[in-house]
Structures are given as C-alpha cells and as structure tokens.
Amino acid sequence: QVQLVESGGGSVQAGGSLRLSCEASGNSVSSYSMAWFRQVPGKEREGLACILSNGLRITYADSVKGRFTVSRDNAKNTVYLQMNDLKPEDSAMYYCALQGGICYRPIKDAMHYWGKGIQVTISP
C-alpha cells in the first residue's frame, strides 16, 4: 500500500507560481512512474504530466507544456510540480498518482494509487 499526500496548494494571482509536492509513504515509489492530474467540478480529471521512475522521461499535456515542470527526489520519496505563469483556468483540485507500469502519458484509468488532492486557485 502506498499513501500519497499533496501539499503546497493555495491561492495566487495570475502570473504567479506555486510548487506542489507529493510525498509518498508506506512504500518506496522510486521504481514507479508518477503523474499529476487536475480536476474542476463537472469536468473529467485531466492528466497533466508523468515522470518515469528514473526521472529521465517526462511527458506533459499541451495545456501546461512550457509552464509546468515535474521532478522527483526518490531519496525523499517525493514528486514535485512546479507551476509558473499561472492562469485563472489553472484553478482546480490537483492530484498526484502512481502508475505501476511505465507512464508514457498520464491516463486516469492507468493509475494505481491517488492522493486526496489539493486545491489551487488562481485569481485574475
């Protein structure tokens, strides 16, 4: 069993930055792909990015490419999402997730464990 806990969310103005963290416990996640998603009420959960276990391959959704950066520190069992140039449409609940296999692109149904999510709100 793996527990994932997101932190670092909050409210910022458009153009600002936030850094989300996802700390895993219960087991090491160093051998697994990790991913970030977001969801707004009434919409499907959107895959944002995934990173392979060794951090050498990262895939981003077009909606965040060039603004968001995923990284991981396997020694800390933690994955990060650096979000820059934030826009009001980035407001959502953000989730991290673990995929048992190789993540080529973040697909909701391929994930095995999920965090509970954290709110990010961007004001104009």
Structure, explained:
It is a single chain. With 124 residues, this protein is mainly β. It has no helices and 11 strands. A hairpin with a 6-residue loop joins β4 and β5 (46-51).
How many helices? Answer: 0
Shape assignment: globular
Give the helix proportion (percent range): under 10%
Q: Which structural category do the helix and sheet elements fall into?
A: mainly beta
| Helix-strand pattern | EEEEEEEEEEE
Instruction: Determine the mean pLDDT.
Output: 96
Largest sheet data: 7 strands, mixed
**Number of DSSP strand runs:** 11
The rounded Rg comes to 13 Å
Low-confidence stretches: none
Strand content: over 45%
First CA to last CA: what distance? 40 Å
In short:
With 124 residues, this protein is mostly beta strands. The protein is 0% helix and 49% strand. It has strands spanning 3-7, 10-13, 18-25, 33-39, 46-51, 58-60, 68-73, 78-83, 92-99, 113-114, 118-123.
